[in-house]
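Possible regression after last week's pipeline update?

I re-ran a chain I had predicted before the update to compare outputs. Posting the input and the new output here so someone can diff against the archived version. Not blocking, just want to make sure nothing changed silently.
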Amino acid sequence: MYKRFISAMYAINIVAQSIFSLLTPAALMFAVSWLLVKKAGAAEWLYAVFITIGIVVGLISMVRFAITASENLERLEKQRENNKKTGHTTNEK
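New output (post-update):
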């Protein structure tokens, strides 16, 4: 029961961080384009350019995070299997 809960929380964490890494660059680029248009008097088409760049960067960031997280999860699972085979626990020093 405890391990299932931890696994579920880990999955929720990965999903939340993936969404955050996708949306943050787009939101920052929107803020930059808003400042340029409203405060500096730049052309309004900058919204489309900057938000598109933000979405692309966010997608790249999300994919890189998902790949890294899956690699780390596989590494942890292999480590658990090895510990079960050898009888070691992760709390040993």
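Follow-up from reviewer: compared with the archived run. The radius of gyration is 21 Å. Marking as no regression found.
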